[in-house]
Design goal:
Elements (H helix, E strand, L loop, with lengths): L1 E7 L5 E6 L4 E3 L2 E4 L11 H6 L4 E5 H6 L3 H6 L2 H6 L4 E5 L2 H7 L1 E6 L2 E5 L6 E4 L1 H11 L3 E3 L11 H27 L7 E6 L5 H12 L6 E4 L8 H12 L8 E3 L5 H9 L4 E4 L1 H8 L1 E4 L2 E4 L19 H5 L2 H10 L2 H27 L3 H13 L3
Parallel strand pairs: 4-14, 5-6, 6-10, 10-11, 11-12, 12-13, 13-14
Antiparallel strand pairs: 1-2, 2-3, 7-8, 8-9, 15-16
Helix pairs in contact: 7-8, 10-14, 11-14, 14-15
Bound molecules: guanine (GUN) and zinc ion (ZN).
Subunit structure: Homodimer. Within each dimer, one monomer is responsible for RNA recognition and catalysis, while the other monomer binds to the replacement base PreQ1.
GO molecular function, one term: tRNA-guanosine(34) queuine transglycosylase activity
Family: Belongs to the queuine tRNA-ribosyltransferase family.
């Protein structure tokens, strides 16, 4: 991949360009989550019309169903889903940990039971790359060892050691495969762990970032129930140990406020189920804060969700109509609400980028918070 820093602004905020085989990605970037090879309620055209340059897929889910060999037959995720821009695929480490019954890591990989049919499987640093070669994702994530927080120092230390061991195995396997012509257009990111402990984060970041063949680095293991300020402090601390000349990705984060705070702390890439999941639950994001579309107060409200929004939903429909569709349980509601929330997140990232390019981050951030607190 090609990576270029276009501008920097207040503190560690930066605007970059990442070029993969399938798209040019302007950062800061939010990657909508398409776990099963689709962003829920949407299709490839919807995502293209909203300007999404990269979306996420999940190795864990696609490996279990429909299977990566089948997807490979259809030309990988791009051919199968018809989304022509970039895909990033998570490795399955996090999903095996959070979704399956009694997942059990050992020195060489993770044993887990499928959440679909209870069948037993084993992921290794190499096997999750094989699956991701079949999926043809532009950015592949390594297998990492997750721990529930809070946890003992010994267990967190173990997780760092394992993640580094697996990262070394993964990068040498990837180089071997590329030498054989496999995955030549695919990039690979390592994942820094270490809970909210500074020394552990430093250790993990230093060990992984020394592996200079990695195309980028992620911060994992956050947004798992710790206080927000702990997440911000951990990111602030960790980005100082990450190289300037490679993309930085904060996994599974977050709210609009979390994105703004972490861009300032040096993060380029984000993903989260929040805009899509919240859309389906009736929570819509706007420039003045959240709207709970279920509320009776919107029954006869003829205004769009967000006066400032240029999405398909806001250009065409009222809150009253969405309130009705939600209450009636109509499928169309999910599509219209998801279109809005994703577009809101993408627009927020474009605005953040413009602020960095114009070097007026501080003003931008102030206005972002002021609009929210002035909500009636
Ligand atoms: N998604 C959110 N957090 C994580 C993490 O720490 N590791 C992986 N693999 N995926 C994640
Ligand atoms: Zn909208």
């Amino acid at each position: 991949m090609e990576f270029k820093i276009d501008a920097t602004s207040h503190h560690k905020a930066r605007a970059c360009t990442i070029k993969t085989a399938h798209s040019e990605i302007k950062t800061p970037v939010f990657m909508p989550v398409g776990t099963q090879g689709t962003v829920k309620a949407l299709d490839a055209n919807d995502l293209l019309s909203m300007g999404a340059k990269i979306i996420l897929g999940n190795t864990y889910h696609l490996y279990l169903r429909p299977g990566s060999k089948l997807i490979k037959k259809f030309g990988g995720l791009h051919g199968f889903s018809k989304f022509p821009n970039s895909f990033l695929t998570d490795s399955g480490g996090f999903q095996a940990f959070s979704l399956s019954d009694n997942s059990k890591p050992d020195e060489n990989g993770i044993t887990f039971k499928s959440h679909i049919d209870g069948s037993k499987h084993y992921f290794t640093p190499q096997s999750v790359l094989d699956t991701q070669y079949d999926l043809g994702s532009d950015i592949m994530m390594i297998l990492d060892d997750l721990v529930a927080l809070p946890n003992t120092k010994e267990r967190i230390k173990k997780s760092i050691e394992r993640t580094t061991k697996w990262a070394k195995e993964a990068i040498s396997y990837h180089k071997e495969q590329q030498a054989k012509g496999i995955g030549v257009n695919q990039n690979i990111f390592a994942i820094i762990q270490g809970g909210t402990d500074k020394e552990f984060r430093k250790m993990s970041a230093e060990q992984l970032c020394a592996l200079s063949d990695y195309d980028g680095f992620a911060i994992g293991g956050l947004s798992v129930g710790e206080p927000n300020q702990d997440m911000y402090d951990t990111v602030e601390w960790t980005t100082d140990f990450m190289p300037l000349d490679k993309p930085r990705y904060l996994m599974g984060v977050g709210t609009p406020e979390d994105l703004i705070e972490n861009i300032e702390r040096g993060v380029d890439m984000f993903d989260c189920v929040m805009p899509t999941r919240n859309a389906r639950n009736g929570t819509l994001f706007t420039s003045t804060g959240r709207v709970n579309i279920k509320k009776a107060m919107y029954k006869e409200d003829n205004s769009p969700i967000d006066e400032e929004c240029d999405c398909y939903t806001c250009q065409n429909f009222s809150k009253a109509y969405l309130n009705h569709l939600y209450r009636a349980g109509e499928i169309t509601y999910f599509r219209l609400a998801s279109l809005h929330n994703i577009r809101y997140y993408l627009n927020l990232m474009s605005q953040a980028r413009e602020a960095i390019l114009a070097d007026n981050w501080v003003e931008f951030k102030k206005e972002f918070y002021e609009k929210r607190s002035s909500k009636k």
